[in-house]
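Posting this for the archive.
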Amino acid sequence: MITFKTTMTGSWQVSGVPCNKHSYLLVHGWRRFCEENNVKEGDICTFNVIKTTMWHVVITRYIPKLPETAFASSMKCKSINDRPISEGQEMSKGSISSSKKTLSQKKIVYEIGPPAWINKKILNTNNRFFTLPLTFCNAIGLREACTITLKTSLSSTRSWQVHVLPYKHASNLGSGWKRFCWDNEIKEGDTCTFNIIETTLWHVVIVHR
């Protein structure tokens, strides 16, 4: 029995059965998962394996190609998550949710979800803190000082502990952030996408400049 999660709270139980020696079938529970998440033909599901029986599922919606007109070109949609879903994977075309917020002057894009994620360009790695929008942190449950776990690979046991401090207009990733940047060779101009698996467990995809 595998637990599927698309948000920090919702989950579905899906049973898996080995088929011959070359594949594995998701059977009981799979149809319900598709129906309740409105998964349609052509959509793409990315399964991030947190552990053997717990998978975080990112759904990218399929949109047929439009005729290449000036208007269509200007209206091209990005991935539903507007980011690389996992390391090394190209961005897929999808729809942009109305809950997405863009702060172009600070190069921040985020999605309250589900699933929740935030994308931010690193402007200064010498800072001991990293600022995040308060509305985003409140939406995912970060309303008090706490410690979150950052992982760059869900299949790896390596992780970093970073302290979060909420303020009046923003929240800061403080103690532990500079060590995370150092260990992962993050430089000015790189981009980090934080995928919120749980309130205090974030999967970080780093795109080096």
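Confidence is low (pLDDT under 50) at residues 69-106. The first strand starts at residue 2 and ends at 5.
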